[in-house]
Amino acid sequence: MSSTNKKNVFGRLLTAIVFIFLYFPIIVLVVFSFNDSKSRKVWSGFTFDWYKELFSNEIILNSFYITLMVAVISAIIATIAGTFAAVGFFNMKKRPRGILLAINNIPVMNADIITGVSMMLLFVSARTLLRFELGFGTLLIAHITFNIPYVILSVMPKLYQLDNNLFEAAQDLGASWMQAFVKVILPEIRPGIVNGLIIAFTMSLDDFIISYFTAGSQIQTLSMSIYSMARKKVSPEINALSTILFVSVLCLLIIINIREARQEKRARKNNLVG
């Protein structure tokens, strides 16, 4: 066997080991969510009872409703704000744009616990002046805040790929600024906007640390409820809930990959026609 083949075999073996360590625990979790007993070691038979109990748990359902509301609202607002911010950054001169993009990257690279604690301190300080309590509003503001940088990072590459003459040509043909933006620029950067929306929704759905510090004591997101349940005992209901979340994220990733593949195929066809 040649050295090249040995390297290929070793690389595949290493990749297989990494995937086993990553996904074997998830597979075990999914399998035991259908276990007929509460045991996490012995398989006693197949059942859907834990899923039935999960959907009859009012605490979990209420947490899911809050999580979904926060994720949808924050993703939409962050996408709108992030898109206009990205367009504003793109139209700036190179130096200030570089500085602002560097500042935009800080929340992305920053540890979640630092963001969560700092936002909690901000809300607590403002509470004495504005007389409000930590709750749904502060949770929503926090999610919008950490989602906006991801939307900007998704939209900016599409703006860089944009032909700068399109906007001016549309205005020369009689379109107003808003008409040129909506009918010319927006369709060109729509893939980046959609990707930013999906990323923002996923990040909001998955967040625990920032939500933990900004939600207060009155409401709980799904991740916070799972954490509270796991502190007492790892119930099969947690396995069922984790399985549902895993399948949902997996389906979302499949949709994103299919969409990106279709976009690439469409772009290659347009290049061939051009």
Number of domains: 1
Q: Can you identify the CATH class?
A: Mainly Alpha
- How big a fraction of the residues is strand? under 5%
The major pleated sheet works out as: none
CATH-defined topology: MetI-like fold
Note poorly predicted spans: none
Please report the number of helical segments.
Answer: 11
Structural class: mainly alpha
Estimate the helix proportion, in percent: over 70%
How far apart lie the N and C ends? 47 Å
| Radius of gyration over all CA atoms, rounded | 23 Å
Which shape, going by the Cα principal axes? globular
What's the number of extended β-strand segments?
0
| Series of secondary-structure elements, N-terminal to C-terminal | HHHHHHHHHHH
Q: CATH H level: which superfamily?
A: MetI-like
**What oligomeric state do the depicted chains represent?**
single chain
CATH architecture: Orthogonal Bundle
> Whole-number average pLDDT?
83
